[in-house]
From TrEMBL:
Membrane topology according to the record: Single-pass membrane protein
Domain of life per record: Eukaryota
Family per similarity comment: Belongs to the cytochrome c oxidase IV family.
The protein's annotated pathway: Energy metabolism; oxidative phosphorylation
Protein name, entry field: Cytochrome c oxidase subunit 4
UniProt keyword list: Membrane, Mitochondrion, Mitochondrion inner membrane, Oxidoreductase, Transit peptide, Transmembrane, Transmembrane helix
Gene name linked to the record: BOLA3
Subunit structure: Component of the cytochrome c oxidase (complex IV, CIV), a multisubunit enzyme composed of 14 subunits.
């Protein structure tokens, strides 16, 4: 099948290979769009018919699961949404400024459901361990644990010292082995003595300088 655009309003197509048996058909683009929409409608009707048949009977998920669970629970798992939280998004964060997160810390389990049903009654019937389990189910840390100083800075200091030590060792290796720089002559004792001798006999500072502190007759310092 070959399509040829004759003008901006007329579309021509030819059925091959036999042009004599299937002559050229001309129709407008509007008619072509109408035919295409009719074919799409027939296909949609067939799909709806098959969907409504007993062999393909399905039930929409939206009729079973609430929209809130469809939106958030694939990301937060089986955790209960209990409030607004920090910004309205269902996320857990231990923050003293927002002490009540929007979701619980742990997911729902059968044991927790039993404890939650038990806590609706008299709290004197709950043991200390059960109260702690209920608290840890909703919160990860207490206020004292949240506000306590975190020892993370020790790890940062250790890494900084480790990197600095490695850099110093690398510098010493490059300086002594790779570059093999000659020793500085200014640091030698012979050079320092020669410089001192030159300053003394050049009469550097005869009043309040270096020469004023040296006795040339006895060749010693005053």
């Amino acid at each position: 099948m070959t399509f040829v655009v004759m003008s901006s309003h007329v579309l021509e197509f030819t059925l091959e290979p036999s042009v004599e048996l299937f002559p050229t058909i001309k129709f407008s683009l509007v008619e072509f769009a109408e035919i295409r929409s009719i074919m799409n409608g027939v296909r949609l009707a067939a799909f709806r018919f098959l969907r409504g048949s007993p062999c393909l009977l399905t039930r929409s998920v939206t009729t079973v699961v609430p929209p809130e669970i469809q939106k958030y629970h694939p990301h937060i798992g089986n955790r209960e949404i209990v409030g607004y939280g920090r910004n309205g998004n269902p996320q857990y964060l231990d923050d003293p400024h927002y002490p009540y997160p929007s979701i619980r810390f742990c997911p729902q389990t059968d044991e927790i459901e039993v404890l939650q049903a038990k806590e609706k009654g008299d709290w004197h019937q709950l043991s200390i361990d059960e109260m702690k389990n209920l608290y840890r189910h909703s919160f990860r840390m207490t206020f004292a644990e949240v506000q306590a100083p975190h020892p993370r800075y020790k790890l940062a200091v250790a890494w900084a010292l480790f990197v600095m030590s490695g850099a110093m060792l690398y510098f010493c290796f490059i300086k002594s082995v790779v570059l093999n720089l000659p020793s500085c002559s200014y640091a030698k004792k012979e050079y320092k003595d020669a410089l001192l001798y030159r300053r003394l006999y050049s009469r550097d500072g005869p009043i309040d300088g270096l020469v004023s502190s040296f006795d040339f007759e006895n060749m010693r310092w005053k």
